[in-house]
């Protein structure tokens, strides 16, 4: 259309095949004339035909391919198709596309929020489909993937008695089911590190001590070496001072004992000494 106007404009300036030179003022006036002519021509066209290109620009849906690029529904950018994730495990979610960076950050954020780990849903608004760890393993950082895996395991065991292996270099998640409580199992083996622990006390195995005896020990006596000493003391039937709780061994003589802390007690029964203990037979 502009070519038609230009031809009309040039013909107006031509005398047959000869183009007359014009001044700047004349050129400006005639340029204004060209604009008026263009406006008149455009106004004569149907409005719908004129505005159609503006009203209907080319659009592309989220996830729609543009050559080798795909539109991400989170960052709203086009990314290479090989950098995109689609939840093909769920048919209702198959058309939702997200780049690996966005979906990875989304999963990490959901884990940080401590939501119900049984379901991290698709980030598409209104979509109820869940994401499966195995489908995201290739691009999710290893630390995030392992945290997600542990959270799913713990969520699956919700409602069951859970505890961890008492050995610090293992700390495997263990499940105390109803059978353990019913048959009163004490000595158990961790399936991860194959070391023994007490299923009742949830500690390293206290060989030679009943659970009640172990639980009666002071906190500083529950180490492995201290437990061996306590086992020896119980086997030899040593007594403990009722004040300082130190072990005392009687080699000979009467049951009247005096600890180095000054407390006197009866070796037969372990109680503070009184005259009544002269005939103690315990």
Automatic annotation (TrEMBL):
Gene Ontology biological-process annotations: protein ubiquitination
Catalytic activity: [E2 ubiquitin-conjugating enzyme]-S-ubiquitinyl-L-cysteine + [acceptor protein]-L-lysine = [E2 ubiquitin-conjugating enzyme]-L-cysteine + [acceptor protein]-N(6)-ubiquitinyl-L-lysine
InterPro entries membership: E3_UB_ligase_RBR (IPR031127), IBR_dom (IPR002867), TRIAD_supradom (IPR044066), Znf_RING/FYVE/PHD (IPR013083)
Lineage of the species this protein comes from: Eukaryota, Viridiplantae, Streptophyta, Embryophyta, Tracheophyta
Gene3D superfamilies: 1.20.120.1750, 2.20.25.20, Zinc/RING finger domain, C3HC4 (zinc finger)
Protein name per its UniProtKB record: RBR-type E3 ubiquitin transferase
Membrane-spanning residues: none
Cofactors named for this entry: Zn(2+)
Alphabetical keyword list: Metal-binding, Repeat, Transferase, Ubl conjugation pathway, Zinc, Zinc-finger
Domain RING-type, first and last residues per copy: 68-282
Superkingdom, natural source: Eukaryota
Pfam families: IBR
Keyword Hydrolase in annotation: no
GO molecular function: ubiquitin protein ligase activity; zinc ion binding
EC number of this enzyme: 2.3.2.31
Source species of the chain: Acorus calamus
